[in-house]
Specification:
single chain, alpha+beta, Beta-Lactamase, Hypothetical protein af1432, 3 domains, six-stranded antiparallel sheet, five-stranded antiparallel sheet, 18 helices, 48% helix, 15% strand, elongated, binds ligand C2E, binds succinic acid, binds fe (iii) ion
C-alpha cells in the first residue's frame, strides 16, 4: 500500500477515538464546543450531537466542568497541559477521570477526558494491601516481643479498627474452667457496658460464634433479639452493625473477636478476608499466652512435686533413725543461716536447702543393725557406713533438678586436710556447699543424742569445731560459723 492510500489525519483520529473510551472536545478559549470525538459518551448529560456550539459547563457534569474551566484558565495564563484528576459519585460508585488540555492554534483547546476508575481502584487496592501487610507485621512484632497478652490484644484491636475502618472492637476470652466468655480488651467504646460481659457458650451473638464456630454477622442490631443488646447501657453505644468471629487455634475455641460499627457496613470480600486474618492473629496471641501460662504452671507443679518428694524421702529417714529426728530440719535452717552470712545468692540458698534436706539420704541403704548400733562400729561396719555419700550420688545424680544440690549429699564427709571420704578431696577441691554444710552437720550431730553416745553440751561442741578448723573444716567458714553460734549462745 502506498502512502497516498492512507486515511486522512482526521479519519485516523476518529478511528483512534472509537477504539478508546476517551472523550475529546475541541473548544474555543471561552469553552464553547467546536467539535468532539467520543468513544463512549455515556458520561455526557446531553446526547452527543447536541453539544456542538454549547458551553462545556452545560455539557459536562458540574464537578467535571469546574475542573476543566479551572484548567483552561491556567492554560491560558501559563500554557500548562498537566493531567488533572477528579472524581464523581454516581449511584454510590465513585468514578475517576483524568483530563488533559492541549492548546491549539487560535486559542482553541483540545480537552481529552479519560475514565481512569479501574486504574484508580487498582492503585487504591495496592495501597490498602500494603497497609494491611504493615498491620499484620505490627501485630506479629507485638505478639513475638511481648509476654503480655493485654498488650498484644490492644495492638491487634488498634489494627482491627484502623484497617477495617470500624468504630469499636473487643476480644472476649473463653475461660477454660468455667466455659464463660469474659471481656479481655476493647477499643472504641463510649461506655463500659461490655466490660462486664459474661456469656455462656451459645448465649448472645458471641456465645453463638463459639458454639457454631463460625462468624456471626448482624447487619442491623436494631432488630437484635438478645436482652443484652436491648439494654440501656448498650443502646447508649449506638451500634448499628456487628461481627463476632470465633478465635480458634489448633481446633480449640479460645474466645471471640467482636467488631461494632455505628453505621451500616457494606464489606467486600477483601474486607471479610482481612477480618478473618486479624482474628487469626488474635487467636495466635491468645494461644501464645495460654501456652506460656501452662508452661509456667507445669514448671511450678513440677517444682512443687520435687520439693514434696525430697521432703518425703528425708522424713522417712528421720523416722527410721529416731534419735536424729528433727536433725534434718535443724541442719537445713542452720546451713541457710550460715550461707546468708557468707553472702551467697538466692539460687545458692535453694540448692543448699535441697542438698541439706537430702544430705544423709544415702543412709537409706545402711542396715538398721549398723545405723542404730548403740556402741562403737567395727571396721567392716565403718566400711558400710562410709558408702552413704556414694549411695546418695547413685540415687540423685540422674535427677538434673538436683545437680547443684548434690554436692552436699556427695561431699559432706570430705575433710579440709584430705582425710575425709568418699574421695579424700582437700581444701578448695571440696565444693563450697559441702565445706559449709560439713561444719553444720558435725555441730548438730555432737549436740544431739546418738545411739552410741549422749548429746554434748553446746560449748563443748563449739570448742571441738574451733579445734578442728584447718583439720576437718575450712578455716574461713569455721570463723564465720563460730561468730554465728557464739552470737546465739554467749558464754555465761
Ligand atoms: P552422724 O551421727 O550424723 O555424725 C555425723 C558426723 O558428726 C560424723 O561423721 C562425725 O564427723 C561427727 N560426729 C558425730 N558424733 C561424733 C562424736 O561422738 N565424736 C566426734 N569427734 N565426732 C562425731 P562420721 O564420723 O563420718 O560418721 C558418719 C555417720 O556414721 C554418723 O552420722 C553415724 O550415723 C555413724 N557413726 C559414726 N560413729 C558411730 C558409732 O560409734 N556408732 C554408730 N552406731 N554409728 C556411728
Ligand atoms: C562417685 O562417687 O561414685 C562418682 C564420682 C564423682 O563424680 O565424683
Ligand atoms: C571407704 O573407705 O570405705 C569409703 C571411702 C572411699 O571409698 O573413698
Ligand atoms: Fe552423713
Amino acid at each position: 500500500m502506498s502512502l497516498e492510500h492512507l486515511p486522512s489525519a482526521l479519519t485516523q483520529l476518529n478511528v483512534i477515538f472509537q477504539a478508546f473510551s476517551d472523550l475529546l472536545f475541541i473548544v474555543d478559549h471561552q469553552g464553547v464546543v467546536l467539535d468532539y470525538k467520543a468513544g463512549d459518551a455515556a458520561l455526557l448529560y446531553s446526547p452527543l450531537e447536541t453539544v456542538l456550539g454549547k458551553h462545556l459547563e452545560d455539557v459536562l457534569p458540574k464537578e467535571m466542568a469546574q475542573v476543566v474551566s479551572g484548567g483552561m484558565q491556567r492554560l491560558v495564563v501559563g500554557g500548562e497541559t498537566l493531567p488533572l484528576e477528579y472524581s464523581i459519585k454516581l449511584a454510590d460508585i465513585e468514578y475517576w477521570f483524568e483530563v488533559r488540555l492541549v492548546p491549539l492554534a487560535q486559542a482553541n483547546v483540545i480537552v481529552i477526558v479519560r475514565d481512569i476508575t479501574r486504574h484508580k481502584n487498582a492503585e487504591e487496592k495496592v495501597q490498602r494491601q500494603l497497609k494491611r501487610l504493615a498491620a499484620l507485621r505490627t501485630i506479629d512484632l507485638a505478639i513475638s516481643s511481648s509476654h503480655d497478652l493485654n498488650l498484644a490484644l490492644s495492638v491487634v484491636l488498634t489494627q482491627v479498627t484502623a484497617q477495617l475502618n470500624v468504630d469499636a472492637a473487643d476480644v472476649l476470652l473463653l475461660n477454660s474452667q468455667t466455659h464463660i466468655l469474659e471481656f479481655a480488651n476493647g477499643i472504641g467504646f463510649h461506655t463500659d457496658a461490655l466490660q462486664r460481659t459474661h456469656l455462656s457458650i451459645g448465649e448472645g451473638y458471641a456465645g453463638m460464634a463459639v458454639l457454631k464456630r463460625e462468624v456471626i454477622n448482624v447487619p442491623n442490631l436494631k432488630h437484635g433479639k438478645t436482652g443484652f443488646l436491648n439494654s440501656q447501657n448498650f443502646s447508649n453505644e449506638g451500634f448499628y452493625c456487628y461481627y463476632g468471629i470465633p478465635l480458634i487455634a489448633k481446633g480449640r475455641v479460645l474466645g471471640v473477636l467482636e467488631i461494632f460499627h455505628r453505621m451500616p457496613l457494606a464489606p467486600d470480600a477483601d474486607w471479610l478476608e482481612f477480618m478473618e486474618t486479624l482474628a487469626g492473629q488474635a487467636a495466635i496471641a491468645v494461644e501464645n499466652a495460654i501456652l506460656l501460662k501452662e508452661l509456667q504452671r507445669a514448671n511450678f507443679d513440677l517444682t512443687l512435686a520435687y520439693n514434696t518428694t525430697i521432703e518425703g524421702w528425708s522424713r522417712a529417714l528421720d523416722l527410721r533413725d529416731r534419735d536424729t529426728e528433727g536433725h534434718t530440719q535443724r541442719v537445713t535452717n542452720l546451713a541457710l543461716k550460715l550461707a546468708r552470712r557468707l553472702g551467697l545468692s538466692e539460687d545458692d540458698l535453694i540448692n543448699i536447702q535441697r542438698g541439706a534436706i537430702l544430705h544423709d539420704i544415702g543412709k537409706m541403704a545402711i542396715p538398721d543393725s549398723i545405723l542404730l548400733k548403740p556402741g562403737p562400729l567395727a571396721d567392716n561396719e565403718w566400711h558400710v557406713i562410709r558408702q552413704h555419700p556414694r549411695y546418695a550420688y547413685e540415687l540423685l545424680s540422674p535427677i538434673s533438678y538436683l545437680s547443684q544440690a548434690l554436692d552436699i549429699p556427695h561431699y559432706h564427709h570430705e575433710k579440709w586436710d584430705g582425710t575425709g571420704y568418699p574421695h579424700g578431696l582437700k581444701e578448695n577441691q571440696i565444693p563450697l556447699y559441702a565445706r559449709l554444710f560439713g561444719i553444720i552437720d558435725v555441730y548438730d550431730a555432737l549436740t544431739s543424742n546418738r545411739p552410741y553416745r549422749p548429746a554434748w553440751p553446746k560449748q563443748k561442741a563449739i570448742a571441738y569445731i574451733r579445734e578442728q578448723s584447718g583439720k576437718h573444716f575450712d578455716p574461713a567458714i569455721t570463723l564465720q560459723f563460730l561468730e554465728m553460734v557464739e552470737a546465739d549462745n554467749p558464754i555465761k
